[in-house]
């Protein structure tokens, strides 16, 4: 053991400046030994339970940090002002409570990853030299300063607080996990949510410790890192006097208390653009977006999106930005899409950079939505944050709902936005509900918190928030939001606090609604109905089933259509299903009606008829007449799916196909549909993934074959009409000129024309048809002036075989050449090839992964583009010999050593659903899960997923 000497850290700048040639500090041996011991004998993963939460006993209230960035050596010095909280039985967690009882009785628990953070110096003001084992304990993941040591420090401080000082070293260049402080190319960047701050320094790294970061000083080489950013406002910057070499410093101050997960630091040689926004109170806010110099021209759309988001939040919720500066930085290597760090948002380049030549329409809307999401977090996440990570949906579900509303309203495309969001809910979230990772939106336990940034927490959480608005109305929801901020601004709170604000502001009892927070799985609502012609009375009976022991409160939006004319006779009415079985009356009707149920997807449930049968005539009626845009689309999707499922199951399907063809033809030619995007979505067949959820045993090649069969039947039946419609849209697009527009009309035309292209190119059974399809797709590809059209054609060409093979290879070569090394375009190039419908796609993917110079497992975006996309290419991945599973296992074994979070997320939906497959496939999938579980030093992130997957 080594003695720890005091270090003097002044309030302005540390008196001691580390140099690149400083001798090794004496405590490095201790840290190295501890890290080596932990690696050789990794501690058994601990399951953390929600009900074990205990409040802090010692809280950090003020923070000063000093970063000195050197090549392969960063020194972090911290000054923590610590206050004792007189809360009975407060420690940190139940596990820490046991440690406190057994080891130290009481103390300050600081989190730290000893494999990354090397402790140099530690001191408490007013105390003599601290002795390891006497004054503090250093153990895996924790540094515990004993209570007696803290009391001695408090006695020597006039206000009774304690001042804890430390100095640590980290090596961001070696941080391939991209959690904490890491180096991405020539840029330093941080990512602290959920538990990354402990990879920077020792600190109570939990969301309920909200502290004021009074000073963050960053020092680095002036030429290499002219831009030095952190949270809050810039107080001072300049040249470091008397330093070796030319060095620069910047000092930042954030006046708003925040948890450690919202801390951010960026240092680099960056280009930028700037704008301003005048708030509703008249303050001018400077908006700056940073990126590599070559990408600065691709930031303008994001900047304008931010202005729209700020204005929308003021107008919709009365929420005003609270600082004078808002910074956004684009980073290529980033685990997530973006991060809402207070006033310094960090974005994955894929979520912030746009350009007409390299970005699709979908990417423009995605950028706008994510910009909105991260900005909206300033209030729903930053000003009011989570007490603990089990409450994650409090900030994420609420903010996803807010960004969905923003996207739908700002672009006047609420129906399209709703369809796109429900596709995600019914896709990844319903699948999660039905698998081994099923959990409520407020989970009860976890091993690795990063595994619970899930579709359930985000997407289903947003649906739960949407149900508040559906039940309370827009005004009632706004009243609840106002109450929430009035009560909890500056606090770390729980989902129960949000529910209480909604209930109290509206004078309603929402105790039954609270069950949504603790119920996993997807509820099922069953319906049946009767009509009494004599009384003009229609009765709709709804029943519910879920994993909840007691009934949920489910808002079911219903409208009624005249059975003869299709005219809407009863506008949308929200029924509150509170009982296991409940009957609702609709009186004074002139004739029989057809119900349109669960309009706008008013609750995240499955809706089925009491008979258990699919009434295709009913679906065809709604697909033709329903006035609810979402339900009209949904009915068409269900009708298409019913026909495809009959083909899969080798059932008689002629009548079903006739209905599909009739409905498709009506939609194709319906002049009453003025929105091309609505028409495009309604004409699109359900995906293979969607269809797989409707079968008992998933057979991916059979699903693909059946879907293609139905698509070809449609294409052949309406070939002439599709060709005319395609040419008509081509003429309209050409007449619009070369100026790129991301407005509803332009996007709709491109979207619909690409749907037509997809159908026409499906006709490719004979050699002549293959040539014809290849020619059409190639012409579309070469004529494309934007990425939307180019990518649509490339995706079709990439799957061509036979007489289309030459066109395929030419497109692959041209797309790569046109990419001109642009990382985001190269991601598309890799992704399209991984998703191709070719018999040798696995061999192609293996070759790209093993030998292509532009592929790297260290880049999360590139991993997702190639590896994850291939794993989602169901027919190829689920090869009956298990070659796809084995390849994924090989990749995950490598990725887990580099970035465990990427490994865990890649595995989740690809292997753990083995119970839905044939015994042959299931056995091979489990084999890879077991292999990953048995890996030496497997990460907790991956271990938790594969362990649950094997259960």
Automatic annotation (TrEMBL):
- Which positions fall inside the Peptidase M1 membrane alanine aminopeptidase domain? 301-515
Alphabetized InterPro entries for the sequence:
Aminopeptidase_N-like_N, Aminopeptidase_N-like_N_sf, PepN_Ig-like_sf, Peptidase_M1, Peptidase_M1_dom, Peptidase_M1_pepN, Peptidase_M1_pepN_C, Peptidase_M1_pepN_C_sf
Please report a single Pfam family linked to this protein. Answer: Peptidase_M1_N
Instruction: Give every Peptidase M1 alanyl aminopeptidase Ig-like fold domain span.
Output: 521-607
The organism's lineage is: Eukaryota, Sar, Stramenopiles, Ochrophyta, Bacillariophyta
User: Which metal ions or organic cofactors does this protein require, according to UniProt?
Assistant: Zn(2+)
Query: Can you name this protein?
Result: Aminopeptidase N
The Gene Ontology terms for molecular function here are: aminopeptidase activity; metal ion binding; metallopeptidase activity
Domain named Peptidase M1 alanyl aminopeptidase C-terminal is located at 618-950
Per the UniProt entry, what are the Gene Ontology biological process annotations, in alphabetical order?
A: proteolysis
Report the source organism. Cyclostephanos tholiformis
Disordered: where is this region?
Answer: 1-26
Task: Tell me the keywords, alphabetical order.
Answer: Aminopeptidase, Hydrolase, Metal-binding, Metalloprotease, Protease, Zinc
Domain named Aminopeptidase N-like N-terminal: which ranges? Answer: 175-262
Record-annotated membrane-spanning stretches: none
Domain of life the protein comes from: Eukaryota
The cross-references to CDD domains, in alphabetical order and at most eight, read:
M1_APN
